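Pasting two entries for a bug report.
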Amino acid sequence: MAASYDLVVIGTGVAASVAATQCRAAGWSVAIVDYRPFGGTCALRGCDPKKVLVGAADAVERPRRLRDKGVRERDSGIDWPELMAFKRGFTDPVPSMKEESYVQKGIDTFHGRARFTGRTTVAVEGEALEGRRVLIAAGAEPMTLGIAGEEHLTTSDEFLELNELPKRIVFVGGGFIGFELAHVARRAGAEVTVLERAPTVLGPFDQDLVGWLVERSRDLGIDVRAGTAVEAVEQEAGGFTVRSVAASHGETFQADLVVHSAGRVPALERLDLEVAGIEHDKGRPTLNEFLQSASNPAV
């Protein structure tokens, strides 16, 4: 028999946490579900850990910017394992603290993948949950690229957990996540290449500013290639070969690590939206003006 709640929340990031705690404070019975450690992308795999790394990279770069401006450049650098240990001092305590906070507020917690078994019923590792309402706040995941050897790509989540920084890194995709991590890696001493299939990198942003950023990136030694489509990633002894095409000409790049930075999509594929009667277009639910599923407003 399913356990009944006023609200079942799928995900434990910022949106999920706010909704769960506010509804619980209003007297609703609430259950929250996540198959990954509680805390969500921002606290564990995105904003916060990235800011730690960016802060270190900026501290190393700042004296160089002020060279010949009255500041003597010191022999500074990044000790990657030590930096990652410092980063984990922020991220490691989050899941247990988050779960304890939910428990103290009277929110029931469940670990495992959620999938719909009905319009408002959800299965989680053998448990059945039924909600008067269900909130999908599952976040995003790297999009499927459809290239040969895609399984060899390292995600941005995994990059933020690297114990050692490889010497040669290729980023597949020239979006803002790729550029942020590329600059961190370069300032930490790695040889970095960014490959973007579109004619320009950082397409949604002001291209005058992007032009200055690309120029500065190249000054730092980052090899930025726009109009370069990655077709395959091949694992070899000692690393990877990245095969690409630019202007009908093939080119290969050697790497010790190949990072997926080509964009993310809503993490909804495994939720079985159709079972709940949730209409969607290529995985994105069709919503009404209240951000409810247009075909199932209880979600």
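Entry 2 (this is the one that rendered wrong in the viewer):
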Amino acid sequence: MAWFVLSFLIVYSAMHAVVLRGVYPLLTGHPFLPALAGLWMAAMVVSPILVRLLDGAGHEQTARAVAWIGYGWMGLLFLAFCLFAILQALDLLALALGRALPALSGLTLRTATSAAACLLVTSAVGIYGFFEAANLRVETVRLTTEKLPPGIDELRIAQVSDLHLGLVHRDEALAPVISAVRELEPDLLVASGDIVDAQMDHLEALTALWQRLDLPLGKFAVTGNHEYYAGLEQGLDFLVRSGFTVLRNEAVTVADTLVVAGVDDPAGSRTPDDAAVLGPADTGTLFTVLLKHRPWVSETATGLFDLQLSGHTHRGQIFPFHFFVRKAYPYFAGLYPLSNGAHLYVSRGTGTWGPPMRVLAPPEVTLFVIARP
């Protein structure tokens, strides 16, 4: 944990240094602005740690205020860092050209005008990102199967993922999700991990919101990595009190209608064996849904499930981090056909982690309509 904190501080400080260097042309000539900007950025570097300390000491409201400021700033900083990193790389290229070609010496992109333009773009995109994070969308996916039992022509399964309920996101974030799910009238609700975040002392009232969803085939959930970060027992207790059946490396047959299986996130201890979990279940005759937080596909299990539902990627959450997330998770977002007639769906996520903003990755509730051909 200490190494993680140290690594975070080093990387986050370096990102602030790039941005501070980028805005410096706007600060020069003022007696106090450079120092004030440096102090503000130093405070923002330690703000995520300060949130944990304040919350642990029982200063809930202060911790929540610092969290909104600190994480909101984090999103803006990510955007500004990308712009200023590109600008400074181009400036280094201009410097090299100036040394090679004397006629171009003195050429620089580090000007007050370029700095102001970067801040303007950052502000505009950041404001849009706050609005996009609140623009919950419903995605509908239709699949056909021969595995529906007699008398059932259609199954409706709703998926939520990556809500990250905690100190920042509470009832004001969950209530629209509950309303959206109720309007879809699903038979079954599944939650594919990271429903809670690291702060778990503020979620008691949210269980009542979840309990409003009384669905014919129930509610099922699996652990994500943040359930472990939050404290596994607390996370499981919250999910159970909210009416979820938490599937931990097990498969269940639901009302002789379908099989729902779930595996633990490997943040717990080890990578789960999907095939071993699915093997004993009646996957050959009933439509089978596998809940797995991270969009990793086990090739030995693809003949044992019909639809894997995952999350975790947030579709990058804030562009341009899409590119980095896609490198780590080729199954990035949306529906993917797999071998043996199976499919994988990767949710963009229903909430946000860290910065309460999204850019080109709107939050979603997903409805799967499973019907006969």
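Dev reply: Rendering is fixed now. As a check, the viewer should reflect this: Residues 60-100 form the longest helix (41 residues).
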